[in-house]
Design goal:
The protein has 143 residues and is an alpha+beta fold. 31% of the residues lie in helices and 38% in strands. The protein is built from 3 helices and 7 strands; from the N terminus they run E-H-H-E-E-E-E-E-E-H.
């Protein structure tokens, strides 16, 4: 049995145009409400700084990896002092709105115990389901 952790993969279709969903996942005034609950700063360019704030969890730092307007946005964010994981959003227009695919990878490269990596992976796996639900809610109430 392998201890290798797969990337976390989630999909959701948001009933909003591609341009709107792009704004929701890249503009700090939106990300800081549906993802973090206490604000965000995003320098939207490769290498730009990304800072996410939560009232209960504090602040997490990272940097933007890739920006392909309307199709792809990714960042690396710090996992405590153990290294970073890569979060990637891929968008595609559909008849129903916009399909959002998110993946988070890099778990096996974190500098911590296998048990800790598994626990963090499980937390994030659960968390992405919750956060994408928040994205969907935010898209409907903040038109």
């Amino acid at each position: 049995m392998s201890d290798t952790l797969s990337s976390i993969e989630r999909d959701i279709t948001i009933a909003a145009p591609l341009e709107r969903v792009w704004e929701l996942i890249t503009r700090p005034e939106h990300v800081g409400r549906w993802f973090g609950d206490a604000g965000a700063e995003i320098d939207l360019r490769p290498g730009g700084e990304l800072t996410l704030h939560w009232e209960d969890y504090g602040t997490v730092h990272g940097h933007v990896e890739r920006v392909d307007p309307m199709t792809h946005f990714s960042w690396r964010w710090q996992q405590r002092d153990a290294g970073t994981t890569l979060v990637e959003f891929t968008l595609a227009a559909t008849d129903e709105g916009t399909r959002v695919h998110v993946s988070e990878s890099g778990w096996d490269a974190l500098d911590t115990t296998a048990e800790t990596r598994k626990a963090w992976h499980a937390d994030h796996e659960k968390g992405w389901g919750i956060e994408l639900g928040h994205l969907d809610e935010h898209s409907r109430v903040n038109v």
